[in-house]
């Protein structure tokens, strides 16, 4: 067998599949085994977009324990679908409280929503304790027939 075919065949395993990018074994009877996240060190990034418009479907405290960003962008603006999710915003507080280091974090909401306003007001003391700053922008960009809120981000 040529080396490139051998290499390809050694990487494919029909008994395993990927669930959210994690290898799982479909023959396993335990539902936890297909949802477990491998243990690993945290990842440090400058900017992270909170997945799925800040919906609680894919983001939990483990996300914030593992993905440590200087800036998190929250883009949810659909209350009917739970975007942004209060649970995700609370998960940021819970996840960051376990970092063990007091790095500055800036939360950048792209829309002014009731959920983010209430969360900001109700958890302001905890945000200060954890060194989390929430950007609020009253700036508006106007382009042709469209206008939208704007934030300036400097690194």
TrEMBL record:
Stretches assigned to coiled coil: none
Molecular function GO labels: actin binding; microtubule binding
GO cellular component: cytosol; dendrite; microtubule; microtubule associated complex; neuronal cell body; synapse
Feature: compositional bias, Polar residues: 22-36
Region (Disordered): 1-36
BP GO terms, sorted: axonogenesis; dendrite development; microtubule cytoskeleton organization; regulation of microtubule depolymerization
Xref: PANTHER family: MICROTUBULE-ASSOCIATED PROTEIN, MICROTUBULE-ASSOCIATED PROTEIN 1A
Protein name: MAP1A protein
Source organism (scientific name): Erithacus rubecula (European robin)
Biological classification of the source: Eukaryota, Metazoa, Chordata, Craniata, Vertebrata
